[in-house]
What does this fold into?
Amino acid sequence: MIENDLFLRALKGETVDRPPVWMMRQAGRYLPEFRQLREKYDFFTRCQTPELASEITVQPIRRFEMDAAILFSDILVIPQAMNIEVQMKPDFGPYLPQPIRSQKDLDAVVVPDPKEALGYVMEAITMTKSLLQDKIPLIGFAGSPWTILCYCVQGQGSKSFDLAKGFCFTQPKAAHELLQKITDTTIAYLKEKVRAGCNAIQLFDSWGGMLSPTDYREFSLQYMQQITVALKDIAPVILFGKGCWFALGEMAKTGASALGVDWTCSPKNARYLSGGQITLQGNFDPSRLLSPPSEIKKRVHQMIDEFGKDQYIVNLGHGILPNVPVENAAAFIQAVKEYKRETV
Ligand code: CP3
It folds into this structure.
């Protein structure tokens, strides 16, 4: 049994004394102890070495005692395992030298056995579980098929993902074949992660908000739905779609346990759009962690009041920024832990 099960109880919609809290991208980025490791080991070495990945996963927990840990890894280990080369260039981000632009490119893409191609992730999970000693749950994650396609086709990050969208709109058959291959790989991968010890799963649809509601249904939601249906009986699933407020209603019907919300959607609107029954997670503007700690605490309490303490997981509206002072991240977590005390 997990000692602190606040997060799992909120995912079930149970009544809690205070909402649980964790931060997207909490492992890495802003912590000095992470930056030290980053100087010694390159990105994929950090992901592929279970000792490093598990150490980075628990670093923020040691400092802040969040209510859940998220495994240090990346969404792009999936295309890598599918025979698509992925590099992580310092000060640039992901770079895929041979992007998928045609049916011929697609034919070289495989659906691997995750135990073989991604065995290092499973080892990192085993090691992390033993470091966590069942004190808090461990979240496993994957990118949504659409977000993974964005990188596979564009070949790098982008403000518009114009080439990825162009591929979908000019070669829809090939696009759907790629999305299905990513979906199949992701389902097998996440099932294996749950078997290895992950207690919940989050899908990051970081670029879902690039699509119109109609295209979202066709190119993103139906694949996230397949993954959710395949996983929901073995682990709770959280769907986070950045900029996807328009899809909250449909996402709520997939069988997911919770939906992530970004900061451009008010708590009230998010409750309304998602139908008022499902647990919501979010949505503090990551840049607001640059405000002084006293201001952060005030705004976190306001946010909990607006979402309500139940069926709610406190989080940021997207990943924590690298330039956030450590004491401000601490104030965010502390504000949630103090919530009950200050309001009763
Ligand atoms: O809490 C965590 O940080 C857990 C690990 C984690 C990473 N990436 C490590 C990472 C998670 C959950 C991700 C998810 C991820 N990766 C997403 C979805 C979430 C989101 O932010 O929208 C996306 C789109 C990626 C792809 C990716 N990986 C990009 C665009 C970049 C470069 C920019 C950056 O710093 O985020 C990465 C590299 C990456 N992934 C880093 C880390 C800690 C930084 C590079 C480094 O440490 O050398």
Notes: Residues 172-196 form the longest helix (25 residues). The mean pLDDT is 97.
